Amino acid sequence: NTYNAAQMCEKARFLEGECCRMREKLPAAVATYNRYLQDYPGGVYGKQAAERMYAIAEVWLEDEKRRWEAADAGKWQMPRMPNLTDDTRPTLDQEGELVKAFENIAVGAPNAACAEKALFWAGYLHYVAGRYEDADHFFSTLTEMYK
C-alpha cells in the first residue's frame, strides 16, 4: 500500500519480526528482521533488529557447538534430518541459516553492538566448514573495521 507513511511501514515490518519471535517462529523472525534491515538500512529499529537476530543465532549456535563437542569426543552422530516439528529451528540446513544470519547482521547493521561478534562467527563458521576464502573475507573485514 503506497498510501501508508514510510515510518508506519518501517514500524510494521519491525513489529512483524517481533510477533514471529514472540510466537517462537524463529526462522521467520530472522527472515523478517533481515528484510527490515534491507528495506530500511538506516532505520530507527535497525540496531534492535540486529540484536534480536543475533540472540536467535546464538541459540542456533549452541546446537552447533554441541555437535562439534560430540564430534571431538568421537561420538557417533545421526546425520542431520529435516526439522519438521520444531518451529524454533530452520527446517533445512541449520548451519547454513546460522551463517546467513550472522552475515546479514554484519552487512545490514554494521553499527550495531553485535556486528563485530557476528563478523567473527560468520568467519569462524566458514572456517570450520572448510570455506577458507569466505572465512578470510570475514576475518579481514573484522580486522579492518574493528581495530
Topology:
Elements: H1 6-22, H2 26-39, H3 46-72, H4 94-108, H5 115-128, H6 132-145
Helix pairs in contact: 1-2, 2-3, 2-4, 3-4, 4-5, 5-6
Poorly predicted ranges (pLDDT <50, ≥5 residues)? none
Class derived from helix and strand content: mainly alpha
**Overall form:** flat
Rg from C-alpha positions?
16 Å
Q: What is the string of SSEs from the N terminus onward? A: HHHHHH
Report on the architecture of this protein.
- The protein is an all-alpha fold.
- It is built from six helices and no strands.
- It has helices at residues 6-22, 26-39, 46-72, 94-108, 115-128, 132-145.
- The protein is flat and about 60 Å long.
Key terms for this structure?
147 residues; mainly alpha; 6 helices
Q: Could you write a compact summary of the structure shown?
A:
The chain is mainly alpha-helical and 147 residues long.
